[in-house]
Recover the amino acids of this structure.
């Protein structure tokens, strides 16, 4: 779901916020993570001598079953580095019509790389249809751009793409000579939900972007994994877009801590999302599909006038949500406890009363 148009409105001091459902990007470093950051050894990452950055990159590469990895500032930068590493100007990326690389990254691949996007429809779970890949790949014709990359995503609006689905789509793309990039901003949520090693999900991907600052709870950063060749090209792109890092070990230490301590606990976020959906379903004025909740996202709908006034009402109660006229996304994360969910639902009942 796009975040476009959801950033306006009054801000609140951190101490005034009871709970923030806007996104799992709002998580704050835990006390234990801050302690690790405070004592982290650092070096100059551009020279390649920051020990924590090097350890983080090696760790993510090993998790993904790839040769190398690159620490970058954000998921958008990670995807951009990947797309520009795989494609040249005048080439084309096939992706989902509602995937982040197409709708939420300011058209970076097109603006900065001269790369076209070929969006394809997705089903109710966010999955592509392999036959659409066959239809969308361009022929060897001078009138057409050169189809070069297939961009997949997992999870998609909280929906998990299974290993079989990712495998089938990646292999369909490779049959056409496409490289495959996976936007795995919340890939660890998918791995925890599926109960499989993350490397099993991405074995046919040529590059993978993993975000550390969403459900994993680090303050900043993503890691791009792939072959040595792809990561070498991505490193050059990172420099091109101003993403060279210096004493980044403080941030990398947070990422290492997140991978060591915050992966398994993603199951708590999933359980809390289900708890939230089940309680919302008991409020007559709210529509929510409980069975559709797979990971840490819940989508609720209500009458337009209620949806318009609800965010301001809740903000006065210390609760933050994104406003949307038709469907409101609520995201659970490590700063959202079961008790806070119960308080939120109580306030919702008061709003409708």
């Amino acid at each position: 779901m796009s975040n476009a148009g959801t950033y306006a409105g009054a801000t609140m001091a951190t101490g005034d916020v009871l709970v923030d459902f806007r996104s799992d990007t709002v998580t704050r470093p835990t006390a234990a993570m801050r302690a690790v950051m405070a004592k982290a050894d650092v070096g100059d990452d551009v020279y390649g001598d920051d020990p924590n950055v090097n350890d983080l990159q090696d760790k993510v590469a090993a998790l993904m079953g790839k040769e190398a990895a690159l620490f970058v500032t954000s998921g958008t930068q990670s995807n951009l580095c990947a797309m520009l590493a795989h494609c040249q100007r005048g080439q084309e990326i096939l992706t989902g019509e509602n995937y982040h690389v197409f709708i939420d990254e300011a058209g970076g691949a097109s603006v900065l790389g001269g790369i076209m996007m070929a969006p394809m429809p997705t089903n109710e779970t966010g999955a592509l249809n392999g036959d659409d890949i066959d239809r969308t790949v361009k022929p060897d014709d001078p009138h057409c751009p050169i189809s070069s990359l297939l961009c997949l995503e997992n999870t998609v609006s909280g929906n998990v793409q299974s290993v079989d689905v990712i495998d089938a789509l990646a292999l369909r793309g490779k049959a056409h000579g496409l490289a495959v990039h996976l936007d795995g901003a919340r890939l660890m949520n998918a791995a925890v939900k599926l109960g499989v090693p993350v490397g099993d999900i991405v074995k046919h991907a040529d590059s993978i972007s993993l975000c550390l600052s969403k459900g994993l709870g680090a303050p900043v950063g993503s890691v791009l994994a792939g072959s040595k060749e792809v990561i070498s090209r991505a490193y050059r792109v990172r420099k091109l877009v101003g993403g060279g890092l210096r004493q980044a070990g403080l941030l990398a230490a947070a990422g290492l801590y997140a991978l060591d301590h915050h992966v398994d606990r993603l199951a708590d976020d999933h359980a809390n999302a289900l708890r939230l959906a089940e309680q919302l379903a008991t409020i007559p004025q709210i529509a929510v599909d409980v069975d559709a909740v797979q990971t840490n996202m819940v989508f609720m709908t209500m009458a337009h006038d209620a949806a318009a006034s609800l965010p301001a009402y809740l903000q006065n109660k210390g609760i933050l949500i994104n406003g949307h006229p038709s469907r409101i996304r609520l995201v659970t994360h490590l700063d959202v406890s079961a008790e806070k969910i119960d308080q939120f639902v109580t306030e919702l009942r008061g709003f409708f009363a």
